[in-house]
Design a protein that fits this description.
With 278 residues, the chain is mainly α. Helices cover 72% and strands 0% of the residues. The radius of gyration is 24 Å and the shape is globular.
Length: 278
């Protein structure tokens, strides 16, 4: 058996430390969320139970946890759908150069380098100056799009830069209209990438704090509600909430990955059937 070089073990140890640094806090919160009824916020643990998880589903004096979750979930869906639709339309439009396309592109991604809290402050001020109500579904929605749309645009630009336009030419040669070509040729081919854009849109929105801080109005989203709990909650119930939200996030990621896998299997089966002349 060939002996591995010393650099391999050094890199393996470095990667192990990176994984520990990345997931260590999550594991710590997960463990502490199973404290006993008299447990505190730190180690050592005082018993093991699911008391704090049950406490989450009882009437809370610390805030509107489940209302905040519903708002974050609804806002995430709104941002996800808008990000996917706008990103696809922009990707199709930018396949050909047009006047001002360069300036429009840089204007679209500039928000990635602007501090998030300034975006939140600016959007909130604009709504106040226009006499519009600051609300999570309006100003919060617009503020979060400044975060998700640039990522969606960059992904779709990369996808369409590699897209083989001969598929579209073949469809048009068969008499397909522009809309039919997009619907039955382009979209099925780029579908896995659309799932990725949707995942980006939802997760970035669901977890966003800074861009929602000054644009959510009177009703908190889940990140804002959790932040508020850190100042007045002194029991492991906040760890239980963190554990549940983390599980939910991983479940969403798993659902998207499963969707991509099913689509890939279906495409492979259709390709196999077509090759057999079925």
């Amino acid at each position: 058996m060939e002996k591995r070089p010393r650099s391999f073990y050094v890199l393996a140890a470095f990667f192990g430390l990176f994984v520990l640094f990345l997931y260590g806090p999550i594991l710590t919160i997960g463990i502490l969320s199973f404290q006993g009824p008299k447990g505190g916020l730190t180690f050592p643990m005082n018993g093991v139970s699911t008391h704090w998880f049950r406490d989450l589903f009882q009437e809370q004096a610390v805030g509107d946890i489940w209302g905040a979750f519903r708002r974050s979930f609804g806002l995430g869906l709104m941002v996800m759908v808008t990000t996917v639709v706008v990103s696809v339309m922009a990707g199709l439009a930018f396949r050909k150069r047009f006047w001002g396309s360069g300036a429009l592109f840089y204007a679209a991604i500039t928000s990635l380098v602007i501090p998030s809290i300034l975006i939140s402050l600016g959007v909130g001020l604009i709504f106040n100056q226009l006499g519009l109500k600051v609300h999570w579904a309006t100003s919060g929605f617009g503020s979060q799009l400044t975060w998700t749309l640039p990522f969606g645009l960059l992904i779709m630009f990369a996808v369409f830069n590699r897209f083989d336009q001969s598929y579209e030419e073949a469809a048009r040669d068969q008499g397909a209209s522009t809309w039919q070509t997009i619907r039955f040729v382009v979209l099925p081919i780029i579908a896995p990438s659309l799932i990725g854009v949707a995942l980006f849109g939802f997760t970035l929105s669901y977890d966003e704090f800074a861009r929602t801080l000054l644009t959510a109005g009177s009703y908190n989203t889940l990140p804002l509600e959790i932040f508020g709990m850190t100042t007045n909650v002194t029991t492991p119930v906040i760890y239980a909430l963190g554990t549940l939200t983390t599980i939910f996030s991983f479940a969403i990621i798993g659902l998207f990955l499963l969707t991509v896998w099913v689509m890939g299997k279906r495409r492979a089966r259709l390709g196999s059937d077509a090759g057999k002349g079925v």
